[in-house]
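Example 3.2
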Amino acid sequence: MDKLQDFLGAAGGNATHGGAYPAGGPRADDDDWNGAAQHASQHAGDSGDTDLFSNLLGALGQKKQRIADEDIDEEEAVRTHKKYFQDDDDDRDADDRSMGSAAAMQALKMFTGGESGNTAKTSSQGAFVALAMAEASKLFDKKASQGKVSSDSSKESAVMQAGEMALKMYMKSQGGGSSGASGLLGLASKFMYNTVRNSLTTINNMAQPQHPESYATYTALPEISFQHVPPTSPTATKVILLRLDRPKANNAFTDTMVTSLVSAFDMLSADARVKAIVFTGADPRNRVFCPGMDLDAASASAKGAASPGSLSLGSGARKENASSEIAASRAAYRDGGAQVSLAIYRCAKPVIAALNGHAVGVGITMTLPANLRIASEAAKVGFVFSRRGINNEACSSYFLPRILGAGRALTLLTTGSVYSASDPAVRDLFAEIVPPERVVPRAVELAQEIADKTSGVSTRVMKDMLYKGAPATPEEAFLLESRVFFDLFRGRDSVEGIRSFLEKREPRFDAVWEQDRPTAWPWWEEKEEDKNALKPKI
């Protein structure tokens, strides 16, 4: 099992709800710091001091409540990290506060990239705080050897600042259905979202794991896996297979899977080497793509939730407290399936969903934002929410009627029936329906064709034109299409597309979104609640 999954287990991260039910009740705190001082000393190497780390960890525990109430200056944290760990060319003296902040950010980058080195099985909280302290210790010694430490700064203070910042990050990341290392991945995503306006390059380097040389050997994201096309390629390929990988549980949907899928789609979206993504399930029998949420995990989580009946028991004060807790949980909750759907929706690369088996509940709804879907002729498809006493999720109330029309969408949701993929009720969800053993190969063929023969800038713009700020009238469509066409027609991919057609050869598209997107993009204005929905609740 990879390091990240070890941390998730140590933090109790697998005990969260299954992505379809709000989590309720108190969550156990990950307070076990056993071995953290030794872990910090080991990581710090020659800069390590177990006694120093142990004393500071003890003092840190006394400040926990105060730290939990403090905010994080995200932009300042990114700036200090860039100053000390990327540029490293500042001649000004380093102070303990900025070194501590930078060290905590470096620890966040390393931890979410699977580089924590936690061999002592320290809890995820202890390992993360220890990593930040160790990085601060090394940074202080480095700056001191260069004579670049301010006169009023000390190693002890810099290490303490790093520990406080790391603990603050950790405590703010534990919520909204996330815990342990999965919560820290969510925090890294939040840093990426909030600072992208200022520096896209900084965020790509800081707030998400660096693009691996090989996705096939990348194991930092549990419950999913990657494959190159062809599989023998040692480095990333134009087409990447992204697979749900819980075959023993029939790829049932979990919170851990949510975090991993969102991180994976965001990472592949930003990787210039990747041109198309095939999203499928790891099932050698080709019987199940995803049966929906993991009901066992959801039931276990629901046992801790307050029920409506429980509010009538006990004193008035207890009833008021219970109501407040439920209200807070309701406000903080974000549907896991929707987080995956939004990651696919905003993905810059075409996504082909290869349903190599049954797809029920979130197993089908999360695929609706994909550019196209290929289904097995043996697959069953069901929007079964009315038969489980819940509502449809994963943004399907937006995507489903746009694909099938409101009439058929309402029929599927009202009956909750399960259909064969070829049934007229659901047939139009799929670009093609093929034998089970042909689903993934056919999806790969289409993805390869898209990667080789289409412009990534063009396909992304056209998807956005259909979904994002779609024109309400033909006249609005006329104006928008004209503005976009004006820029793309003068772009290098258009020049190459026309030239290759006239020369009767395959195109070699090389336009880059950041440089070649139309000036009209984005032509829509995001609502504030939409922006909030994209942020992990921490």
